[in-house]
Amino acid sequence: xxxxxxxxxxxxxxxxxxxxxxxxxxxxxxxxSSDDEFHDYLFxxxxxxGVHFERWRHANGCGKWFHAARxxxxxxxxxxxxxxxxxxxxxILDKIAAKRPGWTWRExxxxxx
Amino acid sequence: xxxxxxxAVAREALRYHTGWERAWRSPEPKRHYDVVIVGAGGHxxxxxxxxxxxxxxxxxxxxxxxxxxxGNTGRNxxxxxxxxxxxxxxxxxxxxxxxxxxxxQDLNYNVMFSPRGVIMLAQxxxxxxxxxxxxxxxxxxxxxxxWITPERVKEIVPIINLHGPRYxxxxxxxxxxxxxxxxxxxxxxxxxxxxxxxxxxxxxxxxTGVRTENGRTVGVDTTKGPIxxxxxxxxxxxxxxVLSEMAGFRLPMESVALQAMVxxxxxxxxxxxxxxxxVHGYMSQSDKGEMVIGGGTDxxxxxxxxxxxxxxxxxxxxxxxxxxxxxxxxxxxxxxxxVDVTGxxxxxxxxxxxxxxxxxxxxxxxxxxxxxxSGWAMAELMATxxxxxxxxxxxxxxxEGKFIDESVAAGVAH
Lengths: 113, 414
Description:
Order of helices and strands of chain A: EEEHEEEHH
Distance between the termini of chain B: 43 Å
Number of helices of chain A: 3
Low-confidence stretches of chain B: 409-414
Distance between the termini of chain A: 32 Å
CATH topology of chain A: Folate-binding fold
Radius of gyration of chain A: 15 Å
Helix content of chain A: 10-25%
Number of helices of chain B: 11
Radius of gyration of chain B: 21 Å
Number of strands of chain A: 6
Oligomer: heterodimer
CATH class of chain A: Alpha Beta
Structural class of chain B: alpha/beta
Strand content of chain A: 25-35%
Shape of chain B: globular
CATH superfamily of chain A: Folate-binding superfamily
Low-confidence stretches of chain A: 108-113
Strand order of the largest sheet of chain A: 3-4-5-6
CATH architecture of chain A: 2-Layer Sandwich
Strand content of chain B: 25-35%
Order of helices and strands of chain B: HEHEEHHEHEHEEHEEEEHEEEEHEEEHH
Largest sheet of chain A: 4 strands, antiparallel
Mean pLDDT of chain A: 89
Largest sheet of chain B: 8 strands, mixed
């Protein structure tokens, strides 16, 4: 069973307490953006087989949104971190690098997004 | 290929069954094929089969990472129906359902298609309106369905409890020619027919890269060496995003786990498939007597082929009210598969930004029932570059805003 520690209230919450919110750190586009930008923002997803950054809400707890880094292939949780950031924190990137040597987040590393 | 028949059975009975041959060959890959299909599941094998049968393209390799039919083809609840609201989905699913009717004869392989009927229960006022509308739409589309009253539901399904306290049964959408088939046999039957046409089914061979030159695909790299090809068809369900990334394009897709389970075998008690979409549970009885139960998907991305335990509880809890006898059943086995869910929950059967590279994915929770129709349409698209069945399922529909506005993946709000 998936267990995530809520970075706000510190509770180790199991799955039924949480609501999944999909891929994290999407860049939001507003009026004046191109069709391609809207298309990618609304529909295109990373869907990696491996390290995934995602949004979660501590729905049946403190009710707050937060971020988590998780491996979709092993269900290993690397950690959770604050929602007040638009990119993964250095701390979480270090945690992942410690367990997955050589891993880089290509989208942010390449500056594609 | 030796044909299966009653005479073959009699002949083999007289010689201790020593004359049965292997259903398909397991060759080493050649250096070049006209078409490479990645993924030997139902959809991949069906595509290869109709490429050969309808278009005479038989220099085909079907490459499979694991074993044939070992992914979602072997992990579903084997339900076949075509009672969809929107025209594009009704068309392709009805094509598939009608091909299932004659599949055993067509493939000379008993796929045990059993048109036992499918009822989708209406348990809220909204569902009554929704299903009546679907029944009307189906009449226009030439799909035979009807709206039935609770009394008629009880007649067809005597074990049902119509007057549950929370979700009473208010009627149902009934498709009499829907039903089930033996899922493994569908894959095996297609595989046998493909192999007989001279196609190579290469198992335990993982694609590690897709080679492109000047924006067109020229081959794949695999764990058994590089294979050149003129056209490539990616039909890998939950792993579609991984493969598309190798080819250099992205998909509007997320992979999630979907679970199902079977109970201990019991005496025949339900000769119809019942789906309760409000509470996310559906049930049928297999020929072995097990109650086959399917539920909803997990909410998060997952590639592990196992789902969350609490979903099992939720699914069974949902069914207990409508089928009180379920509470006394022991569950025997539970399993999960990775389904590929798109932005509008409808499949993608389409050309891609890479020339000569075609993709068929996004069937999500509704893949098994569509196997022959999907293969038929995909083969036509790959052979001729155009298929009327796939027009609306283009990858470009997300950009154009031409969504197919229903959860094709299941009649439920996943």
